[in-house]
Amino acid sequence: MTYEKNPLFIFGEDKLYYQDFVEALKKVGVNKGDSIFVHSDISVFGKLSGGNRNSLLNSLIEALKESVGNGTIIMPTFTYSYCHNQVYDPEFSPSTVGVLSEHFRNFEKPGRTIHPIFSAAIFGKDKKKFKNVEADCFGKDSIFGKLHKEKAKILFFGAKFQSATFMHYVEQSYGVPYRYMKTFEGTLRIFGREFKDSCTYFVRNLDENVVYDASLFEKYLLENKLINKVKIGNGKLLLADTEVLYNEAFKQLDKDINFFRGDKR
User: Fold this and answer.
1) How does strand 9-11 pair with strand 14-16?
2) CA Rg, the chain, in Å?
3) What DSSP line would sit under 55-113, residue for residue?
4) CA triplet 28, 34, 38: central angle to 5 degrees?
5) What is the pLDDT, as a whole number, of residue 50?
6) Among 79, 83, 203, 244, which residue's Cβ finds the most Cβ atoms within 10 Å?
7) How far is CA 129 from the centre of its chain?
8) Under a CB-based contact definition with an 8 Å cutoff, are residues 40 and 101 in contact?
9) Cα angle at 241 between 235 and 245, to 5 degrees?
10) pLDDT at 176
11) Whose CA is closest to 43, among 8, 6, 68, 79?
């Protein structure tokens, strides 16, 4: 296959190939049969080698597919539609969280959750387990609750740990006092038909100028070898178990309820 032969990225005097990503994914701890939720920022790996962009994106998705084998790949395709008074259409509303997630949304037409703020695209054997989600953004039957229940892993594919939306599910489960439940109303469009709809979102209290900051938690996880890290090109991969993130975050919140508040440091 051509994507196995052509370089994908250039960094310094070196080049990154398809196989480099497959090996890095294995090294960071992605195994056959895993369910992985992928936050991505492919711009950090290096300069694009000059090939076709769709070919590059296909190659990266194929590397992820090879790594999980008969597992499941889930990518955030967040739209924040109801936050911006926009109609949410799971078939057509584009992802706002990166080119790889938007390409994946259209790749072999994976299933997509019907959620107007935090939707996700799902490909693999356990698609049915993850696809049906509740209206509460961070409830037990949200995509994040299902990731926890199914003991999925979260992969930061070049993305920063700060992007881990799963941590807001943890904050809601714990009941942190600096966020509150807010209802967003909007229009849901399914196969051309429109419906009035609403969802709940555990939002920051802006009156308190709450600033979310996960840097201390990331440092703690790395120092205690609770999260895996592998360098690739100019970027890195991080991999964490949802169960570990949940339990360790609870421990930190027990000690300091403002552990995730950058404005309190």
Assistant:
1) antiparallel
2) 19
3) HHHHHHHHHHHHHHTTSEEEEE----GGGGT--B-TTTPPPSS-HHHHHHHHSS--EE-
4) 65
5) 77
6) 79
7) 17
8) yes
9) 95
10) 98
11) 8
The tally of CA atoms less than 13 A away on the side-chain side of residue 126 is 21
Tokens 């209802």: give the residue.
183
Per-residue tokens: 111: 């299933």
Question: Residue 172: in which H helix or E strand, if any?
Answer: helix 166-174
Any idea which residue has 């310094």 for tokens? 12
CA–CA separation, 217 and 235 (whole Å): 20
The first and second tokens of residue 119, run together, are 């939707």
Domain range list for the chain: 2-264
Buried b (16+ CB within 10 A) or exposed e, 195-221: eebebbbbebeeeeebeebbeebbebb
Per-residue pLDDT, 51? 74
Most distant CA pair in the chain, distance: 55
For residue 161, what are its two tokens? 């740990």
CA dist list (Å): 18 to 25, 48, 75, 155: 11, 13, 20, 17
Residues in the chain: 265
